[in-house]
Design brief:
434 Repressor (Amino-terminal Domain); 6 helices; CYNS_N (chains A, B, C, D, E, F, G, H, I, J); two-stranded antiparallel sheet; Cyanate Lyase, Chain: A, domain 2; lyase (chains A, B, C, D, E, F, G, H, I, J); alpha+beta; homodecamer; Cyanate_lyase_C_sf (chains A, B, C, D, E, F, G, H, I, J); 162 residues; 2 domains
Chain lengths: 162, 162, 162, 162, 162, 162, 162, 162, 162, 162
């Protein structure tokens, strides 16, 4: 059994039962809609109670339920760059603003990254007279590169004031 | 003269004069720091008054000043996927959450995209006891796919309620 | 169920029933032939009334009918560059005239793009004594890059007269 | 001397002399603006009288003037797919509508291609209350695949009525 | 049904019935052996009378017969560059002699291409004491790039004598 | 010194002296025009007497003359697939007819290849009332795969009659 | 039926019957073990008597037996570069020693190649006190590039002494 | 000035002055040899005191010294997969053991990653009678994927015991 | 039967029987957990006694048991670079520290590689107050490039002191 | 200074001084011609005494002499697959015979590789009445995958008889 087949089955049943993602997320509960969607789309795992609820909702087998709570191999179906226009625009924004984000991050925080693991993404509709807008908010913990002292511990150096 | 060489020259003078992006943006003024940085990094154009201020600040020639206000060929230096870890995390987040964002967008708005042109990106430091976070906010106008009526005009159909 | 399999099924039935695209589009109605073809080929969605007509015409299951009105993942079967000579010529024309179109667009409109979303494509036969010609007309809304004012609103700047 | 260096030099002088493409095309004359731009951008050749005018306008050397009237190696600088958003939208439209154009062409004309050689591309501004539009018109001669008769001549078969 | 599966079925029956391509082409008739082979290999379409003969010979279903006379999506199975040594040598010859052919063509004919559509390819055995040779003859119509006059017609300019 | 720079220098002098390939080949002599062109374009070596004549014609240094008679690293500048339309058509023809040529070759000769080394390519103009044609003739020695007998010699087996 | 499926079937039966390649080659006979293995692995054809013996040994159908004696499409399953460490080392050796082999060959033989068609490869165990070694011997006919005389015959020029 | 040019300059002076990496690291001091090497090779930044020592040692300009303490664009020169055999073996080990490391990590820690930012790598010679060995020790902080509670805070869930 | 299908079957049964890798390795025994996992994941072979135990544990057929003890084609499923974030971090670490490891290795040992064949990889949890860490230890035999003496033996030269 | 530039300089002087590789190898001495060529072509290092002789022969600077004895970054200029026909044939042979060599190696030696490090390659002319042949002999030490015993030492298991 492949995770991608399970994702396809979930799409099939969602279509058949005429379910919206909003309704699915409310039914499964306990986590944000974005998180639950990402798990059902095969990019996150569902905690066991949520996997149980998903199994009930979609009529999954015990093995499928278990797979839902396993850590997936992420990103394996992705086309890079994406061909779908909706996905491509996110890619394009990251490409055009990438160097700016890198420079800004280093000037503000020092050497390091925005974590994509201790990370949260939210989406919402932003009403606007000139046409409603999509608002995406990403919040990731700043992780500084750690300097390796000879004695082997990992102090958090003041990498901006050195 | 190539745009990439101008970007390199700006980096050289920024380094020599010990300028921060924040100070540069304040000096040039009129637009957000993110926008000005993106233009100086060769991904946006600077309006002429701002190009003039940038030329004064960096000691640019008239032709270089003019190039700053020309529309650039965007993204030509990008590695896809990026090798730099700071840049890669943005790519990874878009890859992992991409299908979720697409599904969410279509359920909320119907068929269409988040514009990457009528688009705004902001970054800020988000203080947090467990370690400060990077907050990135993207706001793009939702653009619905337009259905093509036989008569040739372009009505905005209620593509969700059809 | 995968969208590509539905496209294949539609091709099979079109072949079996000896249907032309023109007849199919007339039967489904309400939208241009190009739009309906693009939807049946898996690159656009069909509004529900049209999906219902398509389902009747092709003998689709309710789930297949529903899939026809879902937003597809576009472009996933595309070879880039295309190998098919008919498709390749379109690619080649865009490659050869691409820089010209970019320069023309910016000189005429300023910084921005021709939307591929608020976009219409028409094809027609152009009679010509030296051999009939194919005429393709694309019309896309010009979308200007928006400058981000510090105060956060999104004015449409006169990016050509700045 | 490389053609790409000549293109860069033309851009430099265009910038220095504050020339628009429209003015350049009028000065060189004899052909459409799109054609002259495409030649100066290194994708077409200029006939000799036009190359002479271009040389006068841009102050080119005799060898550069001669190169302008040579057949170029087309498309060598192209990124596939393009990273620039303005260029990408053309690529995207061809990808999304590609199968439709192929099917339409074969149903209307039979087996063959739209020539990209006996081909014309025009661009114009299309005024529109909801925002002006970009209109691109491509006209290419239909070229039927020729069936090879055993006797070795190349009749134009009625490939649609066979 | 996919065209590639039909090609595979034809190979299976050819193997089973111990047919040679020569015998197949003679049986189907009306066109050159090379053309008929190319169609059965999924790169050309068969006119209907020939498709009917092929269907009788290979025991095809009506839908398979019909598919044989449809325009295929060409080149989709090609590996570029080819891995098969027989195919690779053709690729290599085009790579090594490519620039020569381009220069020769332009000097002899002016700016343009050898059509791959109005095109004929023949192969034959060339007896030779030092070992027989393969002779491949390609004949394609020269297609000149057309210059676009402002008035919009498409004269064939004397592109070599301009 | 790189071979590609020598090719570029030869192009520069050819342009400056207004030489045609035909005139160059006649001046250098001793081999076909196609061969001499291919050598000057960096894909073949010139025998020493011809290299001496080329050096005189183009005003080359002794080291450049010597390089002309060295075996080149072939194909290193090739784009695969080519972007130039003139070159692309050759690629396309090989892609579309590739499987046919392979099948034909094996049926006619058995297992083996058409040599691209013991190989000749000729081009000529083929007058035709419907528009002149380009005729390309390739003749390559058939090389059979040799079967390896246990005793280690290399008999030419009757690979078709085994 | 695809050749790769036949290879897989042969592996399955080899596993089931606990056969070694050495035993298989002895049973089939007539050719070297390396040759027979290469054919069973889908990269060479088996002569008919050997195909008959292989069919008996592996219990193949008549069509599978016939496929074994057909010329395969070589290299289609290859990953380039290979990921398997055993295969990668061969690739690496060719990459590191490639320029040396090319220079050596041209100095010793003149312009040309080592044929990969009139070619023999042997492997053997080379006992060694410091650990046994793998010895691979390749022997390929040297094929000189042929110079094309104007008169059209193909003399073997003394390409080293010209 | 490009970082890669600075790396090249450092190599040149290291060669000229006959310096070992060990001696360089001792002279610069304050951090592990691996860290200092990685910074001088353009993949980490040097804190300012170390950059000053490096500048003195290598005779760098003030701008070069400053560049050494800037955050680099990492990995831009990397070939993926690497062609160098020494580098390739690291790639190969990660490829062969990758799935194992992923499975082990998730079973031991739950869903998450080994940080490559809060990360330390050490190398040492491991004496061994059968031939000395290279020992590489990587230590990275485990970073659990954080579950996003509806209320928006980021609790560390017991992702293994859910 | 394909190795990848056997891996998938093992995952299915592991899921169904609720087995941990730790328990599986203990049950199979005789080798380290990492080694046994790597074999079950299709990247190493299991010795026959271990294959027998694995067959009993997972209920494999005799042919599947045998396949487990065959040498696999390694790395064939790998995405390069990996898309999964857990796998990507290993790739990233090798990319960022790659040049350092190469330089260190050569300075410490001379010209050669760390073997990925005579190689051991261990993983363990490293408790740490700031968050537990993942420790990965790789130990590979140093293999010096051997210099080839004219007399043909392979002495271990003192490649550092030459 | 880049290694590739040093290789180019050596080629330039070899050409100028009319040196053969054979003469160069004899002059430098101490190692096989193949080894010395590989080092001068930038894929191996020269021991110091040989580097000194090479420096004298080619008139190198002290830094260039030193670079010759440094370990190179191997394979960085390689095109994969190679475009040059001479190089391509080696690639093709490895591709066609790759699976055979892997299977043969494992049956003869067990699980492991032929080392490309403890490795020797020789080339020679093999006189033959049907045309002289190129003989390439590769001899690499067989390296068995080592099984990792729980106790941590690395016994050489009888991997074929387990």
């Amino acid at each position: 059994m492949k995770r991608i087949e399970l994702v396809e089955k979930i799409f099939d049943i969602k279509r058949e039962k005429n379910l919206s993602w909003k309704a699915i997320a409310e039914e499964i509960g306990g986590y944000s809609q974005i998180y639950i969607m990402t798990a059902l789309l095969g990019q996150m795992r569902l905690p066991k109670p949520q996997a149980a609820k998903a199994a009930a909702l979609f009529g999954l087998t015990p093995n499928e339920e278990k797979m839902l709570s396993e850590v997936p191999y992420r990103g394996e179906q992705s086309l890079v760059p994406p061909t779908d226009p909706t996905l491509y625009r996110f890619h394009e924004a990251m490409m055009v603003f990438g160097p700016t984000m890198k420079e800004y991050l280093h000037e503000e925080f020092g050497d390091g990254i925005m974590s994509a693991i201790d990370f949260d993404l939210q989406m919402e509709r932003e009403p606007n007279d000139a046409g409603d807008r999509v608002r995406i908010t990403m919040s990731g913990k700043f992780l500084p590169y750690r300097y390796h002292q000879p004695e082997g511990n990992f102090p958090a150096l003041g990498y901006k004031e050195d």
